[in-house]
Design brief:
The chain is an alpha/beta fold and 141 residues long.
């Protein structure tokens, strides 16, 4: 199963959000790497990758994240992880990835630390089903 990646390219100080859905393993890591590096090659100053919908991530996914973190740093760009799933968090913890890059456990944490509105982040990274759940719960879109 290949990861489904949602790109929302925005220039300047606005982040580029990438929502990853599906397992990240040796069969999908190449596509993930390509998408993340393509996003970094653009005008974005801040790449924010959401891993909430990743039920499994192995060392190949961690290797991709480490490579992208290094390239972002080399290019003077910011990189962060948003809402890592339990599986993604466990895989990232093996190499203490949160010591290298900012990890925002929730959209609200990301919003408060980056000054990007929660609604903008949700609209950029959440699936239609998730947006409907937020609306039904009265939390806005």
């Amino acid at each position: 199963m290949r990861p489904t990646i949602k790109l929302n390219a925005q220039l300047q100080e606005r982040p580029t959000f990438i929502n990853v859905e599906g397992e990240i393993d040796t069969s999908t890591a190449r596509e993930l790497r390509h998408q993340l590096l393509s996003a970094l090659a653009g005008e974005t100053k801040f790449l924010l990758v959401r891993l909430k919908l990743v039920p499994y991530m192995d060392s190949s996914g961690v290797a991709v994240l480490l490579e992208v973190i290094k390239k972002a740093h080399d290019r003077g760009k910011r990189f962060a992880v948003l809402e890592p799933s339990a599986a993604a968090h466990k895989a990232m913890a093996i190499v203490d990835l949160d010591a290298l890059v900012k990890v925002y456990p929730t959209i609200e944490d990301c919003a408060s630390c980056t000054n990007f509105p929660c609604e903008q982040i949700r609209q950029s990274v959440c699936t239609d089903d998730e947006l409907a759940q937020f609306a039904a719960a009265g939390k806005g879109a």
